[in-house]
Amino acid sequence: MYLGNFLLVFLNLPLIPLWVKVLKVPYPILFPLIVLFCVVGAYSLKNSASDILVMTGFGIAGYLMKKLKYEGAPLVMAFVLGPMLELNLRRSLMVSDGSFTIFFIRPISATILILALVILCLPFLPNLRRKKPEAEEII
Asked: Which long-range contacts (CB under 8 A, 24 or more apart) does 119-123 make?
């Protein structure tokens, strides 16, 4: 790590003027180059055109998420943590012979489930506190 960081600093310090020039490249020229490098990188992994389709699909999904103001971090976390969650859920269910009660009778997991439920209900509390205006009678 230290050697890699040293080489990175050693190579990048003289190249700072070049990186500044790259930043001055207009967006209409830079964008197709970025897309080209992404396509070449996706194809070069397995020499499969389906990888380009997957990359394009995720690119469109990311664009739509940005336009619709959705955060991308939870999706990335789901992709990273999802397989581990499935594996450990399967292990827990095998230990308990398929019974979900193991999650409620163990103190740590019960506490975590209760906290998750409370956190999920917190956004609804302000709506419950507000009194609904009573309908006025028309005479």
From this structure: none
CA dihedral 40, 45, 51, 55 (to 10 degrees): -60
Q: Do the Cβ atoms of 42 and 51 come closer than 8 Å?
A: yes
The residue ranges of every structural domain in the chain are 1-70, 75-128
pLDDT tens digits, one per residue of 107-121:
999 999 999 999 999
DSSP 39: H
pLDDT in tens, 36-46: 999 999 999 89
Rounded-to-integer distance, Cα 128 and Cα 131, Å:
8
Give every CB contact of residue 91 below 8 A, 6+ residues apart in sequence.
Answer: none
Phi/psi of residue 9, nearest 5 degrees? -65, -40
pLDDT(60) > 80: yes
**Residue type present at position 29:** I
Can you give 81-133 as a three-state secondary structure string? HHHHHHHHHHHHHHHCCCCCCHHHHCHHHHHHHHHHHHHHHHHHHHHHHCCCC
What is the band of 126 on the pLDDT scale with cuts at 50, 70, 90?
Answer: confident
